[in-house]
Specification:
alpha/beta; Alpha-Beta Plaits; about 30% strand; binds adenosine-5'-triphosphate; binds magnesium ion; 2 domains; about 325 residues
């Protein structure tokens, strides 16, 4: 482990009974990084956070977090990491300040009030500090949860699906705040997500995890450059026969739905002029070029679409109602 690495995992494997939830995971996150674990439901994201934070034992392999071995020194690991669970851990009947106080007690912190003041300010919760958390919006709860996880001044923070159930605007606000936690507070961030855009715009490095295995790691742009095909979507009325599209050099595949065609092509720049020439005189209604995205990378590597896994937007009211019931 280099002195500048905040998280190093090598060959980390985790069994639940006979189920192999993590399969020889290798991971390296430099100090100060913003690392995203992208994967569908059941991929092993939460399990990886649990073993790296010392909450759950590793079956095989080794990991060091914030310089400490998670197998032999879990206490030091816990002192140096913050953890934001995907489910709610706040006490609804306490105010924001009282939740911070409770966290300080649980962590046995002596000097915490100045840090708590700073965090309330940073997360723009100052004017609601005396209100019961039960009256907070979903976004405010998530901000307070991150504040609680930062109270003991960890060097690394793990966030499990930090924006699940949030609307698009609140999600963007959280992204800015998480960037600030990383840049202004100088804390290494590892987060899990199944939102492609979140991994793309928020993380400097991404690992794609599927069925317990890391199938690719790299910066979002490195991952995108591995997919060597572009897509062109074109709508022509009246429809043109498939053969006319397939015979254009550079077209690898053509799929139709009604008058619209999706063409997988070697390079959109090369194929587009040929396509327009081949269809001159036809009624082209629309045309769109899709360059490689993390979505196409994911599809390429795992053969599945993330949003086809039941991982779409969550009805957050239903989600939190379930969580509250589960706590009672
Ligand atoms: N405590 C447990 N006991 C037995 N099996 C478990 C346990 N926790 C997780 N698993 C199984 O391990 C696998 C990985 O689960 P995990 O919760 O890590 O996935 P995930 O990527 O976090 O999924 P999600 O996106 O749904 O949160 C799944 O097959 C899950 O059913
Ligand atoms: Mg999970």
């Amino acid at each position: 482990m280099a002195a500048t690495d905040a998280i190093v995992a090598s060959g980390v494997t985790k069994y639940y009974g006979r189920l192999r939830a993590l399969d020889h995971v290798d991971l390296r996150v430099p100090a100060g990084g913003r690392f995203g674990l992208l994967g569908p439901n059941g991929a092993g994201k939460t399990t990886l956070i649990k073993v790296l934070t010392g909450l759950s034992e590793i079956s095989e392999g080794e990991a060091r977090v914030a310089g400490y071995d998670v197998r032999t020194d879990p206490m030091h690991v816990k002192q140096n990491v913050g953890w934001v669970a995907s489910e709610v851990i706040l006490d609804d009947d306490l105010s924001a300040w009282e939740n911070l106080w409770l966290q300080a007690k649980l962590q046995r912190l002596d000097r915490w009030t100045e840090r708590a003041e700073n965090l309330l300010g940073y997360f723009e919760l100052n004017d609601r500090r005396r209100d019961k958390v039960g009256t907070f919006s979903t976004g405010m709860r998530k901000k307070l949860e991150i504040a609680l996880a930062l109270l003991h001044e960890p060097r690394v923070i793990f966030m499990d699906e930090p924006t699940i159930g949030l609307d698009a605007g609140t999600r963007r606000t959280l992204w800015d705040l998480i960037r600030g936690v990383n840049a202004e507070f100088g804390i290494t961030v590892l987060l899990t997500t199944h939102y492609i855009e979140e991994a793309d715009v928020l993380c400097d490095r991404v690992a794609i995890i599927d069925r317990g295995r890391i199938v690719a790691t790299g910066s979002p742009s490195e991952l995108k450059s591995r997919v060597r095909t572009d897509f062109i979507e074109i709508e022509v009325t009246p429809p043109v026969p498939e053969a006319r599209l397939r015979e254009i050099p550079g077209v690898l595949e053509a799929k139709s739905s009604g008058p619209a065609w999706t063409l997988r092509v070697e390079s959109a720049e090369a194929v587009l002029p040929r396509l327009l020439a081949a269809l001159s005189g036809e009624g082209i209604r629309s045309i769109r070029v899709d360059k490689p995205s993390l979505e196409t990378v994911f599809l390429d590597l795992t053969g599945k679409r993330l949003d086809a896994e039941g991982s779409g937007p969550v009805d957050y009211r239903k989600f939190y109602a379930q969580m509250r019931r589960a706590r009672q």
